């Protein structure tokens, strides 16, 4: 998919990986709708991007992915502002093992809400032009992150949900590809979770083990992660792909062939 003239929507787009995804899409000619609950940071980012790319290339929409109403409205506004929708990145996520229900509602339910709305707006059967969904999971979607069982569960679920949806989309001929990105640790604000006992919940005692894991795996720059995100957006041959990104490089996960 060539990105010039295409329109993308990124949840959790105010900062961190969402910001890096928005920037790489803009660099390649797309327009981007940024959705986030962090309004001051989102507005500041929009102002900075206006300077660099012009004010008609982005919009910022205050939106909580736990609200079906707000998310629906944000998709509607994006279509209204830019006239089309081609790329949806369900990226918003948190680490909170104490209020684990909220973690599930953002990291998993938010991805499901965003993916279903994306299909509704992009599938050919609804007069959409087709497109691509990239859901942001984590290395914790592929193996256990011992100090964060609920975070791990949400990310495994995002991988399974996205793979099943990709097959469903292909068999239904929606013209929408669905891929998953699984980054290792990246230098963003979410890493502060490890310094916050209230968020670590009952496994805050495992701080040292977590710290060792982080030192062992290293910390990626968001721009490195964004390069691989771009691959999932632009490579039309990829549907149901799960791409893991580590300091050692990126590789597609291989799974046994589906029975159907
Ligand atoms: N940084 C890392 O080490 C890794 C992060 N990830 C995933 O990447 C995604 C992005 O996280 P980061 O950029 O690292 O963290 P971050 O904390 O910098 O960014 C997350 C963004 O999501 C927004 N957000 C949180 N709850 C929201 C809600 N209910 N509705 C809308 N927006 C909401 C925040 O305001 C923030 O702007 C998350 O899904 C995270 O799980 C995956 C692997 C590694
Ligand atoms: C409440 C704690 C969750 C905090 C979330 C903060 C950072 C998130 C980072 C990640 O998403 C995880 C990245 C990599 C490590 C995860 C698992 C390692 C195990 C992988 C394996 O064994 O294959």
UniProtKB/TrEMBL annotation:
PANTHER family: 15-HYDROXYPROSTAGLANDIN DEHYDROGENASE [NAD(+)]. Belongs to the short-chain dehydrogenases/reductases (SDR) family. Coiled coil: none annotated. The keyword NADP does not apply. This is 15-hydroxyprostaglandin dehydrogenase. The keyword Hydrolase does not apply. Keywords: Oxidoreductase.
């Amino acid at each position: 998919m060539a990105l010039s003239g295409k329109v993308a929507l990124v949840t959790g787009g105010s900062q961190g990986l969402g910001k890096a995804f928005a920037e790489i899409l803009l660099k390649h000619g797309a327009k981007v709708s940024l959705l986030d609950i962090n309004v001051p940071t989102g507005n500041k980012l929009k102002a900075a991007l206006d300077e660099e790319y012009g004010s008609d290339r982005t919009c910022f929409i205050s939106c909580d992915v736990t609200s079906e109403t707000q998310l629906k409205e944000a998709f509607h506004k994006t279509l209204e502002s830019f006239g089309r929708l081609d790329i949806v990145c369900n990226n918003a996520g948190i680490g909170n093992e104490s209020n684990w229900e909220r973690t599930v509602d953002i990291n998993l339910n938010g991805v499901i809400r965003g993916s279903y709305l994306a299909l509704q707006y992009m599938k050919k059967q609804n007069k959409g032009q087709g497109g691509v969904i990239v859901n942001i999971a984590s290395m914790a979607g592929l193996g256990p992150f011992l100090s964060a069982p609920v975070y791990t569960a949400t990310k495994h679920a995002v991988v399974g949900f996205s793979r099943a949806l990709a097959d469903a989309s292909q068999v239904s001929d929606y013209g929408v590809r669905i891929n998953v990105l699984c980054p290792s640790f990246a230098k963003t604000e979410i890493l502060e979770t490890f310094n916050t006992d209230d968020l670590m919940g009952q496994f805050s005692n495992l701080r040292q083990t977590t710290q060792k894991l982080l030192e062992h795996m290293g910390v990626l720059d968001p721009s490195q992660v964004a390069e691989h995100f771009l691959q999932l957006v632009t490579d039309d041959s990829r549907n149901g792909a799960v791409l893991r990104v580590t300091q050692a490089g990126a590789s597609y996960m291989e799974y046994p062939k589906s029975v159907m």
